[in-house]
Amino acid sequence: MDIKKLLKGINDCSCGKSHSCPITYVDIADGALSRLPEMCKDYKNILIVCDKNTYAVCGKSVAEILGDSVAETIVLQDQTDVVIPDESQIEVIGSRVTGSTDLILGVGSGVINDLCKYVSFKNDLPYYIVATAPSMDGYASVGSALILGGMKVTLNARPPKAIIAEPAVLATAPTPMLQSGYGDIIGKYSCLNDWKLARIIKDEYFCDEVYELTMSCVKEVEPLAKAVLSREPKAVGALMEALVAVGIAMAYVGNSRPASGSEHHLSHFFEITGILDNKEYFLHGIDVMYSAAVTCKLRELLLEKGIKTEKQDRGDWQKEIRRIYSTSADECIALQNKVGHYAADDSAVVASKLNQIKLVLQSCPSFNYIKNLLDEIELDFDAFINMYGQEKIADAVLYGKDLKDRYTVLWLYYQF
User: Fold this and answer.
1) In what order do the strands lie in the sheet with 127-131?
2) Which of 82, 263, 268, 273 has its CA 20 to 30 A from that of 398?
3) Pairing mode, strands 25-28 and 162-165
């Protein structure tokens, strides 16, 4: 993966747009940490943000390497040992930003990255991220995934100016985080299929170049499951590069469409309901891969049972939203009223483009194909069923879509 070439962007793309990426530096290689002083030479009051785990992994080393240029190091704590990217953590970081702070440097993975991305954006400060795990694809994306008001929201911010990672450090990440990164990449089979579907049914913008870039990342990572589990630095580094490349793809189009679809909506459902109900849930990318298997099964069911081409009665969906999301229901209802998917009648479009829709659904891997990849990365689909239960999974399939404004196969399954 030629990351340096991707950072240069694409001028006059075939989609009619030019794509750029504001990231100036990506260093995923041995000795990356030792090059930090040169990268940070223009900053004299750096605010480092990590949690207690990532501080031990390399946050302490980063602070020592940067020496006097570090103004303060924050080590986030949480009573549950799982830092949630919510209002309280935003306040903790934001309260330590001073008039002299000139760089926010996160040390960690998903949560640290999202919090630093948001706080730096709100304070118009640059930020760098030193990655400690190849666990998700949000490092280079414009979006900041947060939990605000009990809702999972992705706010537009801006990518880091620099992404730094040493494969040897990444390879020490806990096994679930390695599985999570692999799962997040494999989940692109589902979201890319959704993107094609939305182009047909909703006439949504689509870029073949970005599609192919993302799919190339999937194809490169897919055979690496065993090597990643064996913590081979080369394979772990390749996984990290793919995750960053997908983030760049998101930066190209200005949103997460190339990397997030129905499988992410299910994943967000399990996370949000887990937080609301104080129930356990899997790491993001693991949930994404399990959920991708589920959405692939939905596509098979639609092809098997037939796609209805008449307008359907949506029933009392608001009642179901209130049952499922409790205190966060009003936000979901307001979002869907604004987006208008429930009010829309797509039956004529579906009827006129039925053959195209079927071809798109058929192009997605089968449930069994994804399940075999789950086996390769040592994730048991039965563990997913046992964690959430059939009833909750059924709710996710019908109402996970309500957490987001994006059209995916979940809407086609719900409506038709």
Assistant:
1) 25-28, 162-165, 127-131, 103-108, 46-51, 70-76
2) 82
3) parallel
Query: Would you say residue 118 has pLDDT above 90?
Result: yes
* Domains of the chain, CATH where assigned: 3-171 (3.40.50.1970), 180-205+225-230+255-415 (1.20.1090)
Give pLDDT tens digits for 280-314.
Answer: 999 999 999 999 999 999 999 999 998 888 776 76
How many whole angstroms separate alpha carbon 250 and alpha carbon 260? 9
Beta bridge partners of 49: 74, 106
**Cα(45)–Cα(97) distance, integer angstroms:** 10
Q: What is the pTM of this model?
A: 0.90
